[in-house]
Amino acid sequence: MKIERVYRFSSRIYVAILIPSFLGVFVSTTEEPRWEHDLASFSKLSTKPQPSPSYLSQNCAKSITDSMATCSSEKEQALVVYNPDPLLASLHETEHEFRLEWTGTGRSLPDSVKLQQGGRGTGATTWAAGYILATFIAKYHSNMEEKLPRTFVEVVKTRGQEFKFEDRTVVELGAGLGLVSIVLGMLGSRVVSTDGDETVIPFLAKNVRAYRQHMKHVVKVARLHWGSSEDVQLCMSRLPAEGVEGGTTVDIIMAADVVFGQDTRVWEALLATMLKLSHRGTIIFFGYSSRYDLDKKFVESLSEYFLTAEIPSEDWR
Predict the structure, then answer these.
(1) What parts of the sequence cross the membrane (predicted)?
(2) Dihedrals φ, ψ of 24, to 5°?
């Protein structure tokens, strides 16, 4: 699959604001994150079924516009990007290749990443916000401060943090096929790459393993169902014990296009998991393609717990 065909379409949608994608950076503003959610209550989510590739191709109405389709039934409603060739077809591809532009690495890194694709859910492919976030980090990791408001950067520094990725402990939520985790691994981060879809995990592990020779640290893969205390503890156990006083802490959390649907319990579980993994200085990079009102409401909920700043689109193109 030629990535230009898939992501030229996605990028054009973003520029045209058909399905706008936003990259938000969130920094904890509390000494200890408020923990008002009982993780156990989210451990057995009964979510709406995610649309499969066959469902999309068979049931999406193609008459809305050339770039959108709506899928609806009595049980679910969803807004999805529609392009019969290549986007929907890409869900059936077994391999994708993604171009990357690196700056400030001081060494040669692959100019593209090939990902093996498989699984049954929406995590079985790489969506637009994931590609945007990965390319943004690859290109601007060495001058990230220049892309953010000065006051925001000052707050980050007062908390003993800085915008760098080498040797930082990173947890990616909803990693899917692992593109963002692979980029971070190549930049020297200590990454725990997680996903809640057990059918995706083998492909995620295979993809990150394929680029081990370009990484300073091994990218670890773990299943993490949002809201599951057991999975959160498993994730924490895989972190390097190099935090404050020898404890395990998360420096950075990554999440891009991780929710597809309007089940509020899923969003609540995501927020609860982010809070559980965060400490005073944790930075969260969150990218999403705006499909529902809940996307914006989730960002509003994050603002109750985190200082937020949006990265203008002109700064990551």
Answers:
(1) 12-29
(2) -110, 145
Instruction: Summarize pLDDT for 119-140 with one digit per residue, the tens.
Output: 555 555 666 778 888 888 998 8
| pLDDT-based confidence at residue 29 (cuts at 50, 70, 90) | low
pLDDT of residue 306: 77
Determine phi and psi for 292, rounding to 5 degrees: -135, 165
For residues 269 and 267, give the distance between their C-alpha atoms in angstroms, rounded to a whole number: 5
Collapsing DSSP to helix, strand or coil, 222 comes out as strand
Shortest CA distance to 135 belongs to which of 180, 76, 87, 104? Answer: 180
Q: How many CA atoms within 13 Å lie on the side-chain side of 248?
A: 17
**Residue 23 confidence class, pLDDT cut points 50, 70, 90:** low
- Rounded CA gap, 248 and 236, in Å? 7
Domains along the sequence of the chain with CATH: 3-52+91-316 (3.40.50.150)
Largest CA distance in the chain: 59
Calculate the alpha carbon distances from 225 to 15, 37, 39, 71, 254 in Å: 33, 15, 11, 26, 15
- Classify 95 as helix, strand or coil: strand
What is 155-182 written as a DSSP string? Answer: HHHHTT--S--TT-EEEEES-TT-HHHH
Retrieve residue 130's tokens.
């994931």
Best CA proximity match to 122, nearest among 51, 24, 202, 49: 51
Q: How far apart are CA 96 and CA 203, in angstroms?
A: 12
For 58-107, what is each residue's pLDDT tens digit? Answer: 433 332 233 233 333 333 323 333 333 344 455 556 777 888 889 988 88
